Amino acid sequence: MYIPPAFRDADKESLRATIRAARLATLVTATADGPLATPLPLFLDESEGEHGVIYGHVAKANPQWRIPPLGDGLAIFMGPDAYVTPAWYQTKQETGKVVPTWNYVAVHVHGAVEFFEDADRLLDVVTRLTNLHESGRASPWAVSDAPPDFIQAQLRGIVGLRMPITRLEGKRKMSQNRNAADRAGVVSGLAASDRPSDRGVAPLIPS
User: Fold this and answer.
1) Per-residue pLDDT reduced to its tens digit, 83-108
2) Closest CA to 17 of 50, 52, 49
3) CA–CA gap between residue 64 and residue 29 (Å, rounded)
């Protein structure tokens, strides 16, 4: 990922927070047949290894797990993002020398990809993933709510993913390269947007 120094996020806790907050990631592997990519819900186990381990699962019918990867895999986690119009910049009124851009948060996670079919390990992964996304619901659903034979049949249709993290790259592009007046204009513009996602980006712009 191209990361200009002004946008580099090297804070480990910030990177982990972006990973935890992302509800869907993209797993990318390079293969002899070209790159393969699958959108997946993934979760981070921070207790394993120096940087943590990424877990998830893919459908057994998905060819990505069968084709040997060339080198490390890449998991892409996206955070908040929003379009930024030049109309919000004070500089537009002063010089007109402005162009549109996009503000966003992204974390790229690198590591060797391991796929597995062990039923006990798969059950652990789907249970942890389910608990993660069901937590906070008034009546959370649990894997144990379904009949055991049904769950075992479902497990036979998926393949587990384990990726120990060897490298993390973080980018937080939030108008840091603009002056204070331009950043204030971006905050005002995003805060007034009819898109909830835009309004969520506004507090991330540095003052």
Assistant:
1) 999 999 999 989 999 999 999 999 99
2) 52
3) 8
